Amino acid sequence: MTDRTLSPKEVKEMILSICDKIIASEAELSEADRKLGDGDHGLGMQRGFTAAKAQIEALDPKSVGEVFSTTGMALMASMGGASGAVMGMLYQSGGTALNECEALDAPGLSRFLDAARDGVCNLGGAKPGDKTMVDALAGAQEAGQASVDKSLSEAFAAIAAGATDGMERTKAMIATMGRAKTLGEKSIGHPDPGALSVSIMFNTMNEYVN
Question: Any long-range contacts for 147-153 (C-beta under 8 Å, 24+ apart)?
């Protein structure tokens, strides 16, 4: 694995590492969701990424985008509900932007994140500050834009830090969307479960590359 690019096969391996991490994080994600929702976010994510793992393991990818898009479609088909739609859209929108990409570099990573953010925001209507997964995704996307001239390993480190920072910021926010909005100020002090999931994903990508 070079510092400049990731091949479709390496992106496949990276996604499989995310699947394993999310599956193993079920209890952490469900506990976070119990503070703000009905406590099933971890189970939904586990189900979705178990299905995605099976799809990706069988894939012989010809492009980087194919790996991401296949992941997104598997999540949408297996998770159901709003969570499956937005998590799936993250990967599917980002993957579509890289359909012809045979090697992932820092500019390509930024294109993935730009398209992922647009897709998720257009689908769900959330924006940064609403205490959703968009806060972590926006943190990653902004870091990606600032890293287009850096090495891929530096870019992944930056987006992981950006996603983590975005997730941490949700702790101080009042939820305005979904089931958590009924809690009002009681939602303060707890991270959004979707943002936590996004943070785990991008940190796992960074661990794979670095």
Answer: 147/106, 147/109, 147/110, 148/106, 148/107, 148/110, 149/106, 150/106, 151/3, 151/4, 151/106, 152/3, 152/4, 152/5, 152/6, 152/104, 152/105, 152/106, 152/109, 152/209, 153/3, 153/209, 153/210
What are the tens digits of pLDDT across the range 11-68?
Answer: 999 999 999 999 999 999 999 999 998 899 999 999 999 999 999 999 999 999 999 9
Residue 175 gets which letter from DSSP?
P
Q: Residue 55 contacts by C-beta under 8 Å, 6 or more apart in sequence?
A: 70, 71, 73, 74
Please report the domains of the chain, with CATH numbers, ordered by start residue. 8-209 (1.25.40.340)
Instruction: Name the residue with tokens 């997730």.
Output: 167
Encoded tokens for 203: 């940190």
Under DSSP, the state recorded for 151 is: -
Q: With 50 as the cut, is the pLDDT of residue 175 above it?
A: yes
pLDDT at 3 (0 to 100)? 62
> Which DSSP symbol is given to 104?
B
Question: If you average pLDDT over every residue of the chain, what do you get?
Answer: 95
Decide if 72 contacts 93 (C-beta within 8 A). yes
- Say if CB 30 and CB 46 are below 8 A apart: no
